[in-house]
Amino acid sequence: MAKNALIEHRPWLLASVIAAGAYYFLWNNPIGEIYLIALKGAGVGLLAVYAGRRTSGADGSILVAALVLSAAADMALVLDMTLGGALFALSHIVATVLYLRNRRSETTRSQRLTAMALLVGAPVISYLLSQDIMIGIYALTLGAMAASAWSSRFPRYRVGLGAVLFVMSDWLIFSELGPFDLAPLPDLLIWPLYFAGQLMIATGVVQTLRGELPVR
Q1: 1, 24, 29, 103: which has the fewest Cβ within 10 Å?
Q2: Residue 102: inside a domain, yes or no?
Q3: Within a domain: 107
Q4: pTM as predicted
Q5: How far is the C-alpha of 116 from the C-alpha of 150, rounded, in Å?
Q6: Is residue 200 part of a domain?
Q7: CA 182, CA 104: separation in Å to the nearest integer?
């Protein structure tokens, strides 16, 4: 039964990876802004379709909502950074709700310290990189998302690590706005880190909610 479900739903993951890979190689190609915006949104948008088909109940709906908001933010960023940032902040708040609903019953001291480091470090480093107080405020939601993901019952080295990759991707974006020149790392790594993080989060949450083992 699980094997049949995997065959049925894996194409959504494959389509998502293909869309994200295509955007990575075409984002600076003059094929038309509308097409690139749609292609950019398709990466995480198709993850939302995958999650919607593989889950049910409140937690599944919250995951889908967070992914849909992220896909909308991906597209909005191309046109308006403020709108895109607001949508991402909302997606982080929704994701944080999901993780807090699924808190791990017991955590070690090192796990608690890591979560605290993410909660505090995400906004502080975001501000230092960008020198922009509004980005520091946005990153409060980013840190809350990452810290709660790390402390949730979802696989830490998939969902938790995926959230950390998301944070690192944002840090590279913010480095382009401030005094730190990390070129060529932002152009090379922002999108791969971001999409890999979203992919790990989506698959890790879905498989946990379904009680499945990770696909080998």
Answers
A1: 1
A2: yes
A3: yes
A4: 0.91
A5: 10
A6: yes
A7: 36
Would you call 152 helix, strand, or coil by DSSP?
A: strand
Identify whether 215 is part of a domain.
Answer: no
Task: Using DSSP, state whether 180 is helix, strand or coil.
Answer: coil
Tokens read off for 73: 């933010």
- CA 189 to chain CA centroid, Å, is 14
Q: 86 vs 68, 73, 74, 93, 137, CA distance in Å?
A: 14, 8, 11, 11, 11
With tokens 């992220």, the residue in question is: 70
The model's pLDDT over 145-173, given as tens digits with 9 standing for 90+, comes to 999 999 999 999 999 999 999 999 999 99
8-62 residue pLDDT tens:
557 999 999 999 999 999 987 766 688 899 999 999 999 999 999 999 899 999 9
Residues in the chain: 216
pLDDT of 86-127, one tens digit each? 999 999 999 999 999 999 988 899 999 999 999 999 999 999
Domain tally, the chain: 1
Domain of residue 159 covers: 2-210
107: left (phi over 0), alpha (psi -120 to 50) or beta: beta
Q: How far is CA 37 from CA 28, 34, 58, 79, in A?
A: 12, 5, 30, 9
Residues 6+ apart with CB under 8 A from 18: none
